[in-house]
Write a structure and sequence with these properties.
The protein is an alpha/beta fold. It has one domain: Alpha-Beta Barrel (TIM Barrel), CATH 3.20.20. It is globular, with a radius of gyration of 18 Å. The two termini are 22 Å apart. One of its GO terms (biological process) is carbohydrate metabolic process.
Length: 282
């Protein structure tokens, strides 16, 4: 099936008050597992490659991107490619030729006016290339080993009035909002601020995105989608599934040296995790 665009999938989901699952991929096994999991439940899906994943791959975007494009084009469900949490303008400019239809430009670490200026410049360039662009306002924490922000810390939640101005002035196509989740959580204990989500959904006219969804329990995810979240980002949950399955396999088979044996076990664990998460969002 030909690649579809992220904007197409998210716009359709937002109109239907549903959400598309977007999974961060690091290896070819991640790519294959996400597509197989989505196929098993007949659901569209977004493959995401983060700037950190590119750094892991020796700073080279194309090897993983080309593999993802090839796998997506052979999928039985619609698949889109998204470049996630991009801070590097050089990496941003590689997106169109690498097969990505969308980017998440991350300047949320900057003061508001600097975030706005950097995001506006990225939006102007991305739109000229036909890219759909997501940004973030508010800080989730949890990336690169940093702790989650305290719920009452300045900037730990997205302010609806500020978000309205940011969207209008930057021209972004979607906004990732901070409502209580955090990146890299290994336990599903996050509690979302659904009252804040309602105010954001009532205030903004662009699709809303939830980052750090691996730490959000099923019932909270279901409520978030009902409250207006149209794109749900998942990364750590796949790594937990893969690593746990490989760890168990190697403990039971200490003589194993063929990487295909344990990678296949890890991949199948991710397939199940993908199907389970998509099922929660359906």
């Amino acid at each position: 099936m030909p690649l579809v665009t992220t904007g197409e999938l998210i716009t359709r989901a937002a109109a239907a008050r549903s959400a598309v699952a977007a999974f961060n991929v690091i290896t070819l096994e991640h790519v294959e597992a996400v597509i197989a999991g989505a196929e098993s439940v007949s659901s569209p899906v977004v493959l995401q490659v983060s700037e950190n994943a590119v750094k892991f791959r020796y700073g080279r975007l194309l090897p993983l991107a080309r593999a993802a494009v090839a796998a997506a084009e052979r999928a039985a469900v619609p698949v889109a490619l998204h470049l996630d949490h991009i801070q590097s303008d050089d990496l941003l400019r590689q997106a169109p030729d690498a097969g990505f239809s969308s980017v998440m430009y991350d300047a949320a670490r900057l003061p508001y006016l600097d975030n706005l200026a950097a995001t506006k410049a990225a939006v102007d360039w991305a739109h000229a290339q036909g890219l759909w662009i997501e940004a973030e306002l508010g800080r989730l924490g949890g990336k690169n080993g940093e702790p989650p922000l305290d719920a009452h810390a300045p900037g730990a939640r997205t302010d609806p009035a500020e978000a309205h101005a940011f969207v209008a002035d930057s021209g972004v196509d979607a906004l990732a909002v901070a409502i209580g989740s955090s990146h890299a959580m290994t336990t599903r204990t996050a509690t979302l601020d659904h009252d804040l989500l309602k105010r954001l959904a009532d205030t903004l006219d662009v699709p809303l995105v939830l980052h750090g969804s691996s730490g959000v329990p099923d019932d909270e995810l279901t409520a978030a989608v009902a409250g207006g979240i149209a794109k749900v980002n998942v990364g750590t949950a796949l790594n937990i599934a893969m690593t746990g399955a490989i760890r168990d396999f190697l403990a039971a088979h200490p003589e194993a040296v063929d990487s295909r044996k344990y990678l296949s076990v890890g991949r199948e664990a991710m397939v199940r995790a993908v199907a389970d998460i998509i099922g929660v969002l359906a």
